[in-house]
Write a structure and sequence with these properties.
Keywords: Membrane, Transmembrane, Transmembrane helix. The chain is mainly alpha-helical and about 70 residues long. The chain folds into 2 domains: about 35 residues; about 30 residues, no CATH class. The protein is about 75% helix and about 0% strand.
Length: about 70
């Protein structure tokens, strides 16, 4: 092999490894971001994990309105 062929082969190997590394890093980043909850969405986390475990946010207003009507 001449020096030019060796250089082209090394360059192709580098490009393939670099693209594979970037793709793997992007996949891992996407996977981690989809499994975690942003700090400002923490109250919604329980509702997503266990639907029905917490009342809807407007149910307290509805209950208080019904209580006022009954009295």
């Amino acid at each position: 092999m001449s020096k030019m062929e060796q250089s082209n082969r090394n360059k192709k190997i580098f490009v393939v490894v670099f693209v594979a590394f970037v793709a793997l890093f992007a996949y891992i980043s996407y996977d981690m971001s989809s499994r975690t909850t942003a700090p400002w969405n923490k109250p919604k986390q329980l509702k997503r994990a266990l639907p029905g475990a917490t009342p809807d946010s407007d149910s307290l207003k509805l209950d208080s309105l019904l209580k006022e009507v009954e009295e």
